[in-house]
């Protein structure tokens, strides 16, 4: 239904977003300013204790600085009430006293036609349900009882039976006055290719009504009773009511259950959904005979931000999980995500519930993995990366997949996660079998591995440049305050800053919280919350005071260059500290000779890096990584080598 021009603008102007949201949250009285329409509360979309959900009642927009949910009154009603766009508009229009515009004649005619088809479908539901209770339905009832479906389940899911024969339903509906054209349009009968009368679509099958989110019967799914039937499961054909690529089985009830906090579970078929719901997993849905489509994926995310894809534990189930992942990667946008839970091999959720109960299913769901781990598994499981070419092939495959992610923040986090996983994989492969070490290049011998008391007692004292890190963080924060326009571009880097100084951590959080608002008021809001002395102390630091980007606020190019360089240097520092920590761990069991050999190898690697002026690392993010060894890091590395070498006791 199309709305007249200006209707939505008037609806938004008449609607108080604070009143709409106030029905779902408790406002934080300390942070909120009701007179200005500046309201804060714990976010209704994710579990939190702090008030990071902001409502600007004057502008009519909300934003959560935790899960990044954002929108207006219409989208808020959609998400919290689990309704469609038009249903949300109707709810708000009634509250605002605005009549919904009358539909045009063609729309009314189409609506009337759909209403007729829905009525015919409801008559078919009742016919099939009645057939299940007759003597001819005994075999079907026995089968359902064997699947654990008692009388309450039959009633809840309105399960029925299409009896054998070609015209049982058609004759029943004709006696009710339903013409053949409506039966054909509803997909209940099919035209004969031999010029005969239409015949029933479903025959000798257990019938499951398929309803839309508003509860209207729009199609059927039929499970064959004859083991020799070519099609074990059969769905209604696409009709004016039903498009299987845009429908989820159990959509409406699952939407309500998800709104109450249940995890949204996506299974493969309606028997799995029924079994899950009967076991207490009420927010369960399934596609209808097809792989998950882009439309269905968007529908899932409108129900819940992080559905769990629960698939059969066989090759087909794993392949289906991979198809969903490939479909979802380009569509990812915070907070939308997917998790994957694979059932034990050879079992589906229905099998697992009947064999081991609901607890076993919950354990599988609790072990669900995020999509980035599924991507990693696909590219690495069962493969050996014992050559530079194989490693390069892995890098290329992962890089190509990550490039598909359009959201820059998610893309950056995927890149970092893959880097971490890659480091762990290649570190373990370099380590080799337990107790072994690589042969020294050019000497044909393996360095000793047995620890000695001298090496065991030596202590690696880290020379981390805490002051330098503190100053770099200060420059980054001051740059963000001087030129807020660059904050969205470097949001992921700001979030990754460890900020050992609690004052810096507080400033970083405030910058991220207020970054989506008017940049012109960012400094004022932070000064009001953190106090003027905080900003004064920040700008009093010498490195900050002489920084060109702080002295030239608003210079976007200069600020962008400064942020990229300083964040890259912090990242390089973190990498160096990780290497030092690893060396400290290794020293606890390393031999003197092995230690000397490893240090010499490290020195050679350092010299090669200096000659090439870049690290041998894979760049996953877009742009220059800037992670080069600077003068301070070289001096720290040299000092580290000297301390460890000369700390060894003489023989």
Automatic annotation (TrEMBL):
It catalyses: ssDNA + n NTP = ssDNA/pppN(pN)n-1 hybrid + (n-1) diphosphate. The keyword Ubl conjugation does not apply. Residues 430-455 are annotated as: Disordered. GO terms for biological process: DNA replication, synthesis of primer. The keyword Iron does not apply. A zinc finger (CHC2-type) spans 43-67. Coiled coil: none annotated. Its EC number is 2.7.7.101. Pfam families: DnaB_bind, DNAG_N, Toprim_4, Zn_ribbon_DnaG. Transmembrane segments: none annotated. Residues 430-439 have a biased composition (Low complexity). Binds 1 zinc ion per monomer. Keywords: DNA replication, DNA-binding, DNA-directed RNA polymerase, Magnesium, Metal-binding, Nucleotidyltransferase, Primosome, Transcription, Transferase, Zinc, Zinc-finger. GO terms for cellular component: cytoplasm; DNA-directed RNA polymerase complex; primosome complex. One of its GO terms (molecular function) is zinc ion binding. Belongs to the DnaG primase family. RNA polymerase that catalyzes the synthesis of short RNA molecules used as primers for DNA polymerase during DNA replication. Contains an N-terminal zinc-binding domain, a central core domain that contains the primase activity, and a C-terminal DnaB-binding domain. This is DNA primase.
């Amino acid at each position: 239904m199309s709305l007249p021009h200006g209707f939505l603008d008037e609806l938004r102007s008449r609607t108080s977003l604070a009143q709409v949201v106030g029905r779902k949250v408790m406002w934080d009285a300390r942070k909120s300013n009701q007179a200005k329409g500046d309201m804060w509360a714990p976010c209704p979309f994710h579990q939190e204790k702090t008030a990071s959900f902001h409502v600007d009642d004057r502008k009519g927009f909300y934003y959560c600085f935790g899960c990044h949910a954002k929108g207006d009154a219409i989208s808020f009603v959609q998400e919290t009430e689990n309704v469609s766009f038009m249903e949300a508009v109707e709810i708000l229009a009634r509250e605002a006293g605005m009549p919904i515009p009358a539909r045009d004649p063609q729309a009314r005619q189409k609506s009337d036609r759909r209403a007729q088809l829905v009525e015919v479908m409801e008559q078919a539901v009742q016919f099939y349900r009645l057939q299940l209770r007759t003597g001819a339905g005994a075999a079907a009832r026995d089968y359902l009882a064997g699947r654990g479906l008692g009388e309450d389940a039959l009633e809840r899911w309105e399960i029925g039976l299409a009896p054998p024969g070609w015209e049982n339903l058609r004759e029943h509906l004709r006696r009710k006055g339903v013409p053949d054209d409506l039966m054909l349009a509803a997909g209940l009968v099919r035209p004969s290719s031999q010029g005969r009368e239409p015949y029933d679509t479903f025959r000798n099958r257990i019938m499951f009504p398929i309803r839309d989110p508003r509860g209207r019967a729009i199609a059927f799914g039929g499970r064959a009773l004859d083991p020799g039937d070519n099609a074990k499961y059969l769905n209604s054909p696409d009709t004016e009511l039903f498009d299987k690529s845009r429908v989820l089985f159990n959509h409406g009830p699952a939407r309500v259950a998800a709104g109450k906090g249940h995890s949204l579970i996506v299974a493969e078929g309606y028997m799995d959904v029924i079994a899950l719901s009967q076991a207490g997993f009420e927010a369960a849905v399934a596609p209808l005979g097809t792989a998950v489509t882009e439309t269905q994926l968007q529908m899932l995310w409108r129900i819940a931000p992080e559905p769990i894809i629960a698939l059969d534990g066989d090759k087909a189930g794993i392949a289906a999980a991979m198809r969903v992942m490939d479909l979802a990667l380009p569509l990812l946008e915070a907070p939308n995500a997917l998790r994957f839970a694979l059932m034990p091999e050879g079992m589906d959720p229905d099998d697992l519930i009947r064999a081991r109960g609901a607890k076993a299913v919950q354990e599988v769901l609790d072990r669900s993995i995020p999509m980035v781990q599924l991507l990693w598994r696909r590219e690495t499981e069962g493969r050996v990366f014992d050559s530079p070419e194989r490693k390069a092939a892995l890098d290329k495959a992962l890089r190509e997949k990550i490039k598909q992610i359009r959201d820059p923040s998610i893309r950056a986090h995927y890149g970092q996660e893959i880097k971490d996983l890659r480091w762990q994989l290649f570190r373990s492969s370099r380590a080799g079998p337990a107790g072994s070490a690589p042969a020294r290049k050019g000497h044909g011998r393996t360095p000793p591995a047995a620890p000695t008391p001298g090496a065991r007692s030596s202590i690696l004292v880290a020379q981390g440049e805490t002051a330098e890190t503190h100053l770099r963080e200060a420059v980054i924060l001051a740059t963000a305050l001087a030129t807020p326009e660059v904050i969205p571009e470097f949001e992921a880097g700001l979030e990754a800053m460890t900020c050992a100084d609690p004052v810096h951590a507080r400033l970083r959080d405030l910058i991220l919280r207020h970054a989506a608002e008017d940049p012109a008021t960012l400094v004022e809001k932070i000064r009001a919350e953190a106090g003027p002395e905080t900003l004064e102390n920040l700008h009093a630091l010498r490195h900050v005071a002489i920084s060109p980007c702080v002295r030239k606020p608003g210079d976007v190019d200069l600020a962008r260059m400064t942020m990229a360089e300083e964040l890259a240097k912090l990242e390089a520092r973190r990498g160096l500290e990780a290497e030092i920590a690893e060396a400290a761990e290794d020293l606890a069991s390393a031999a003197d000779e092995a230690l000397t050999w490893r240090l010499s190898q490290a020195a050679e690697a350092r010299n090669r890096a200096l000659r090439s002026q870049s690290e041998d690392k894979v760049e996953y993010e877009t742009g220059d990584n800037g992670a080069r060894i600077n003068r301070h890091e070289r001096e720290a590395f040299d000092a580290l080598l000297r301390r460890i070498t000369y700390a060894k006791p003489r023989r």
